[in-house]
## 1
Amino acid sequence: MLAVDIQAPDLLSDEARIRERLASYLQAQTKRPWTLGKFTRYAVGFSWITYGFDAREDGGAEQGLILRLGPPYGLFAPYSALPQHASLKLLEGSTVPAPRSYWWSDDASILGAPFFISERVAGSAPVPWMSATATGFEESYRKNIGAQFVSAIAGLHTAEWRGQEGFVDNGITVDNAAIRQIEEWEANRQRWALKPYPMLTWAFRWLRRNLPVAPRVSLVHGDYRLGNFLEQNGRITAILDWELVHLGDPHEDLGWAFLPQYSGGSGLVCRLLSKEDFIAQYEREAGFKVQPASLHFYLVFSLVKLALTHIAAVRCFEEGRFNDMRMPAMGTQIAPVLRQISKLLPVEGA
Amino acid sequence: MNNSIKRMIDGMVATLRHEVIPHIGTEFARGQAFGVIYMLNSLALRANWSPEFVGEQIAAQLALRDALAPLLVDTDAPALPQAADAGSGVKTLEATRDANDERICALITWYGAATLDAARAAAIETQLRACMDRQLKWELQTSAKPMFAEMSAGSE
């Protein structure tokens, strides 16, 4: 097990140090001095560290920027910033609302970890979790945001990534998209699990026996859900958290968005739309029919990914990488997720 | 629970000390928070996960062992779960539970590759699923109501 000193200072949390190094980096990139304002660390995510700050290039206007750093102790480390940067560059000027990414590097000697710098987009993030006293979204709001939510994912799945800078298919095809993901997440299970989970073994067995063929190889967000977009005045201003972006079957994003964990008990997809309305609009805009068997496969796979993400949180906390109490809390959700998997998988011999 | 009780308490203490106490506005409230740290550190010296919780998980594994034994006659199935020694402490019980879960995983892998007649395969699958569901239901029954909305919003 990795030994981490939980009392040791985290250099990536040393805002003064990061600010000084970042100013030097920006000056080297632009050949002009930069003045950086106070850093605000956002308490989001368990993986990439996110800072917001105001910045002014010598002679230019002040602008809001976001710095994201992939720490070596993060959930999915080791990281590369390239997939996120390349995806955001690809989407510039498209119908998919996404922040513009300006600079990136995987050279840890610059800031201490892979990083990219993007624009800071205005808006707030509605979350999937609801307290007992909270009410759902007002109907016209949810339908309006829901329609934009579907359009954005359909736009992502139809974006032409081939031939674009930063994209290499690595031999991925419609036939092997599913097994590539299964193998990747089985490897994650080997890395992360501190103890065996029989239902996970059962689920992987089922997934390997029910692999679908993808309708196309698309850019897949990997964490497309309520909580990962910004909204302002009834408009989605940015889709966020691209750290799991990859090439694959577009059904994968639908399976993730359809998880009951993001419905807030509403029975709706991400508290926004009915499954039927979501699929009908998506099919119109993405240009292919959603296959129920593929959707079911990716719903099960999404629960497996969710369980493994919780298992990773348990490991990170146990090793002392974080003292964030959200992590052991995530660990308590492993059993409910595995129970959901069980309910989705019929006893075949019965 | 998936984290060790020692690490959970260490994390709670560190969170109170570094994330909570610096933001508490009154001397009395800060004193109360240090009282919580003191009591948590006291608990850490004596607490373990409940043997009843682990014991029920092992009971589910042993029920599977008893149900599968006659179904696996004349097969090359891997080893079945085994009981912990009488009078074992909770640490030994946890190790036994995890070793048994490893054996169940091996059984699932074997089952996926074995050539079995349909009736026997169905009966084995039914027993494996029953054991896993019994363990998961028990874990849900012994879990607190989630507070993710409160953790996200920072208020009740």
## 2
Amino acid sequence: MSALELCNLSRQFDGLTAVDDVSFSVNPGKITGLIGPNGAGKTTVVNLISGFLLPTRGCIHLYGEDISRIEPAHVARKGIARTFQNIRLLKEASVLDNVVSGFHRHERSSWWSSLFGTPAARQETSEFREQAAELLSRFNMLQFANLPAGNLSYGHQRRVEMMRALATQPRLLLLDEPVAGMNDREADALGEIFKRLAKDGLAILLIEHNMRFVMSLCEELHVLDAGRLIASGEPYAVRAQAAVVAAYLGG
Amino acid sequence: MSNFILGHLSLFELVLVCSILGYSQYIVLRAGVFSMATAGFASIGAYTAALLSVRIDSPLWVGLLAAATIGALAGAILAWPLARLRGVFQAIATLAFVQIVISIGLYWESMTGGALGLNGIPKLVHFGHLLLVMSMVLYVLITLSRTGIGRAFDIIRQDETVAVSLGISVVKYQRLAFVLSGVLGGLGGGLMAYRNYSLVPEDFGFPLLISALSFVVLGGRIAVFGPLVGALILTLLPELARPLADYRLAVNGVLMLLAIIYWPYGVVDTLSLHWRQRRAVRTQVEARS
Amino acid sequence: MLAQQLLNGLVTGSTYALFALGFTLVFGVLHVLNLAHGAIFMAGAFAGLYAVTAAELPLYLAFLIAMLSGGLVSVAVDWLALRPLRQRGSSEFAAIISSLGIAQVLMSAGQAISQTQIMRFPFGTFPVVIYEFWGVRISLLQAAILGLSLLLAFTLLLFLFRTDFGRRVRAVAISERTSSLLGIRPNIVYFQTFFISGALAGAAGVIIGLAFNSVHFLMGEPFLLKAFVVIVLGGLGSIGGALIGGVMLGLIQTIAVSYLSSSLSDAIIYSLLFCILLIRPTGLFGKLHIETRVVRS
């Protein structure tokens, strides 16, 4: 079963169609790319999937379950994690606390036990901190654990944001232009991490307009232009299509 | 030190009552809710406690428990519609709530004594009681900060979109914050009633609302000890520097202004942020060497 | 009887509208709730009163002095309390706190100057003349209040929608960044906005001081609270809305006071405010679009 399936998804803003009849699917264990020039509607697609926008028409299925009309927080609890185009970290909180915040979905202790500090609630907090530290060490970031997240470099902030997304243990990861503003070396290092995650069975939807980066990572590519899908398939086959060249080069 | 406290016992009682009201304000701000309803909760709690002791002679703890419960109830009712509003709209709506409570207090003479208020309330609260209540409040707030609720509040305050994307239900947590604010506000009001001998509806108007806000702004909105420190400074300062007492309003105003412009995190949070930064830099240096 | 009450309501309502004009103007342009507006209004009333009592100036001069002082105090409020926050890009919360802070400083100054006394304009400052039409009595003062409120509101509207200055203000209100790219200097626009807002508050101070024959350091508070109702009724940031909202509030209040009870009238008004916020947070006529909820669109 595909992890994510969009069927005839459309969204209009005051008569303007931002996403028009888009259908594609994302499979577990693979990185699927969604590319397109600026203003093609890529971020609108992300916002539709994560529930921040309601579709005008069409549906969204997550592992066969229709999620197109449920609240965004609920969508997240169903197992969709995302990163943001402009990194959104809690800048004053420490790196560790930022990652811990991703564990919210796995909280089991009730409000009462949180208010009165039962041993179970305290235990849960210290478990989350340990798990967050493990994640940090897996990505070689443990030495930054106690720094305020806002003090880190851009590339490191990106990693923290991704670790927070991973902490939710998602079934689908949405990456909204994760390498924007990075040089090739930094981007490739991040790309390696994405590959590893996909290999472990995660479904990843990568939204980008950096063609080089996408070509090196994705097994399947979809091209969006002016809200419509103009090409889908194997990366090299897609790149060869005339319409894609036209959309990118404005021909 | 202890002599100083004994000599100024009533002053320290005042600090404790004030800071409980400050905590009612603190808890909503910490969850990113812009509520000013504390004065209204306090009024409801105070009248409940006072009436229980004047009319049916109920003991202290029953009165306080009732005050906190009815505050929670008011918070829950108010939270239902208000968690849907944002920012200034929340502020205006809660201001309206405070005004509604005042005018009902003035109108319902058979119950509240109207503009003349309630008099002859026995002084049931003493310093020891206040310390006990305060330590319970601090215990709950500290544990809350260290567990899931505190984390959720902090994320919501800093970035609602992130909170939602992590699966946190903003409306649910903000409703919880309203209810907790109601509990603390009602409790603070009950303590006021058992300390002040008398109550009038206007005790719970704009000035009370502003002082609750100023304790939190000056002390800090994140660290649990913020409001206590804020209340301590704002209550003791005019007493220690006598000439300032005549200009209490101006002192309050100037401190609020300076705090929000130059120390936007308040005294306690600015210090703890500074300390955390230094420690983090130090550990980083050690890690490298 | 009813006609008389409606007229009284209309006059009361136009004082509310007059007070709310400057308040809503600042919100419309800067998206800031200036809680010092009540204190600025008080400062204007003090200036007008002392111009009449201490300097023995004629009323029209005192009125101008009140407007000028209101404007200057308002600019000072912006300069000291709000501009530093703007530069830092702070939240609306910070602006509310700092305007509350400076309001307390102004009120404390008013308290010290007036020695906590309620002051009055000397008898005869405004000629006591009463007209009667079809059994409805209206004093010259009431007529003047109505006339002035309308005049000031329409002047402000003309200013905003028919002059170059107004175009600049509206551009900044929509986007500070874009308008500064177009060569508009937002700081000058803010300065002008605060001056006009304060001048309107000063005018309201003298008129209301005359109407209720009392000037004191806490006089701004009830009007500020009423102004919330006015601008929510009319839509936050809307000038025309403030005018209509003020008059509606005046009428509702007068009717509630005369048919129910005066202390219950406040409960009714603020419950109304509460309900409108929940049903139509942009006001009954407001077009101003503001993100008001976290509900997705």
